[in-house]
Write a structure and sequence with these properties.
By secondary structure, this protein is an all-alpha fold. Helices cover 70% and strands 0% of the residues. The protein has 10 helices and no strands. Helix 2 packs across helix 3, helix 4 runs antiparallel to helix 5 and helix 7 runs antiparallel to helix 8. The C terminus is likely disordered. This is Helix-turn-helix. Keywords: Coiled coil. InterPro entries: Cro/C1-type_HTH, Lambda_DNA-bd_dom_sf. GO terms for molecular function: DNA binding.
Length: 181
């Protein structure tokens, strides 16, 4: 993946290593799979190679949390903004219908012990509809990098959540995280 990303960017190994602030030898080891890059190197590769899904791939392959929670990287679909918008509309409609169904199914229920197997199966189906929508949104966020500084956008969103009192100040690391970057 790392070699393919570098090759698609048109950069030589020497030029890429220079821009990544690592040695050519280290980059060769990363590309051959001998060495796993540090997260900051993988993130820098996103910028240097202009391959926005590389950090998602890194998280999915190298991070225990990412291995459990990351979505598959869509690499066999039309990822143009208009195609993503069209898919979003379709998935949003299906997710809205699933939310209506979940409201009926989960009324007066505390947990799965209060449900029949048929109800649990329907809750699972509705859960898939919600995940389909979330997956499209995650794909759209990857495409946003082509238009916006997503890191700044998330920082601003986090600030808004703080201003509204959704975040306890003592648990907040947003300002420290952004200033460190």
């Amino acid at each position: 993946m790392y070699r393919n990303a570098r090759n698609s960017s048109g950069k030589s190994r020497a030029k890429a290593a220079e821009e990544l602030y690592i040695s050519e030898r280290t980059l060769a080891k990363i590309e051959s799979g001998e060495v796993t890059p540090a997260p900051e190197i993988a993130e820098r590769m996103n910028e240097v190679y202009e391959v926005r899904h590389l950090s998602m791939w890194y998280c999915k392959e190298e991070c225990p949390i990412g291995q459990k929670y990351c979505y598959e990287i869509l690499d066999n679909v039309d990822l143009s903004p208009m195609a993503i918008f069209a898919k979003y509309r379709q998935e949003a409609k299906e997710a809205h219908e699933a939310l209506d169904q979940l409201t009926e199914l989960m009324l007066n229920k505390k947990d799965k012990n209060d449900c029949s197997q048929t109800e649990l199966d329907e809750i699972r189906r509705c859960g898939h509809e919600l995940l389909d929508l979330e997956h499209v949104i995650e794909t759209f966020k990857l495409r946003l990098w082509d238009f916006l500084d997503v890191q700044q956008l998330i920082y601003e969103h986090n600030e808004k959540c703080q201003e509204r009192g959704y975040v306890k100040k003592e648990n907040n690391r947003t300002a420290a995280t952004v200033s460190a970057i």
